[in-house]
Amino acid sequence: MGSNSTAKNALRGQLTGKGRISARFRNMNIILFALAFCILALVLTVAFNNIIQKISADYAGRYAASSANTLSAHIVNELGLLGTAARSDALIEWLADEGNAEKKARAFGELSSIIGVLYSNNLYVGLEKTRHEYKVENKSAADDIRPFVVLDANEPQDAWYFDCITSESEYTLNVAQDRVIERKRVWLNYKVVQNGVPLGVLCTGLEFSHVAGELFSQFSSHNMRGLIIDKNGVIHIDSALMRNEEFLYNDFEAHIEKEFSDPNALSAIKSHLSNIKGYFDITKEPVAIKLPSGPYSYMTIAPIRHTDWSAVILYDSSSLFNMSLFMPATVTMLILLLVFALAVNTIGHRLIFQPLDKLERSLELLKDNHEECVYGIERDDELGRLANTILDLFTKANYDALTGIHNRRFMETSFQHIMQFLSRSNALLGVLMLDVDYFKKYNDTYGHEQGDFCLKAVAQALDGCLTRKNDFAARYGGEEFVAVLPNTDEAGAQMIAEKLLESVRALNMPHAGSLVAPYVTVSIGVATGKVGYAQSWEDYVKRADEALYASKENGRNRYTHHAV
Questions:
Q1: Which band of pLDDT confidence, cut at 50, 70 and 90, is reported for residue 15?
Q2: Per residue in 46-69, pLDDT tens?
Q3: Of the CATH numbers 3.40.309.10, 3.40.50.1820, 3.40.50.150, 3.30.450.20, which one belongs to the domain with range 54-319?
Q4: Whole-angstrom Cα distance, residue 175 to residue 183?
Q5: Other beta carbons within 10 Å of 429
Q6: Which fold has domain 399-563?
Q7: Strand order through the sheet with 310-315
Q8: CA dist 186 to 135, 163, 175, 181, 224, Å?
Q9: What is the pLDDT of residues 205-252, one digit of tens each?
Q10: Which of 184, 322, 387, 438 is the most exposed, having the fewest neighbouring CB atoms within 10 Å of its CB?
């Protein structure tokens, strides 16, 4: 390991783990991503929940309105036909004169064109004067039309007639058994009036099982339930009882108070019923209610136009609009967020932290190997400016501005680390200290500019003699230089000293003021020894300085060795 391994380890210790910007960035990225993920998930959950509630309420209203409009459309169509028949002069004349066969025939002619387009293709006629009830079918002949029963106000099955004849409205609705075919029907009863005097009632029926199936065939008893109720809260159609023969074909009556245990639902229905003043018009809108408990999440009450009946639809969330429908969008958004985070992290690593890591490693090499190999100095961006600034600061802090070799500051710092490292194994160390002979006279003779050139040449000669990676030279001060040679014995240090003497002589720089030779020469002091724990770098410099002094005393242009 190199002489600056201790410094290298210390530097690495400072730049690894939690101290690294890249590690902090990665950790902060993870934290911010987790936070953003949680916030987004929460926001999406709240937002989607609100959206789902609004959409569910809208869907609930649409379902109920659709069911109500389906029944309303049948009723309006049938009432329109009944109204046309009720206003027929031929029918009015027959009801006023029941026994007139000619009038009956004309009335049948008028009714036959209407009966063919009625839902049930038949019609019941009740007369006020005689209380006779007639049944008129599409294929009937005029002679076949005879009364088959006398209406009795005390008979429940005849209530349709008496309720309508006494009603202030033109028509009424009820659900009852067809006494002829013994099937349950939704009955439409239309009053026939002449000059304000009721003459009778026309009645036609919608097949109950068909109407119920058409209204609620799409509703499952598990997650949706549809009901048709009248203004008294009587349930006439219930999708949950679609397969119940008793409900479809026989007299079967249920009330909302027996069917609804949820107080919120029951309260909402009762409030709706209490506000019914007559038949609903087209301005009455469905009402959607969120139920806090029970098997259903929503209830919608939709008025059926032209009646005082209402469609009540109950839903659970799965039958409307649930969170699962948002799952693809949610997963896609979260995947995009993850991809974005990974992309930011990758781009940040490649654009910032990877170059920074290379810069860091190059600075470690610069510190350890004294090589100017700083990464990024050729880049034309912030990292390039940073690398050049660091290199400039490093150069100014560690190199002598005049000679280009290391300065005394670098020598002292590095020398101390080398001593600490070598003392662990009691390793050898060699130090050279040299001085340019009669340098003051050289300056006086050739001037300071030439003197600077001389120092540069000597420094380069010294640096050129050091070929090992861990050896280094430094300017100690003025015309004095130091060479530090780790793991070098006396013979090795003396070899470097001899080589240096020859290199300086080979420069052949004239020195008229020298008392040694006509060219520039140097005197060298060599100190070597085994590094001990108690020693310091000053001990070696001092011994090398003493050896240098001896070289000068003995005629200069030579080296002297002292052991430490």
A1: very low
A2: 777 677 667 766 766 677 777 778
A3: 3.30.450.20
A4: 11
A5: 26
A6: Alpha-Beta Plaits (3.30.70)
A7: 254-255, 234-238, 224-229, 310-315, 298-303, 287-290
A8: 17, 15, 5, 14, 23
A9: 887 777 777 777 666 556 778 888 888 898 888 877 777 766 666 666
A10: 322
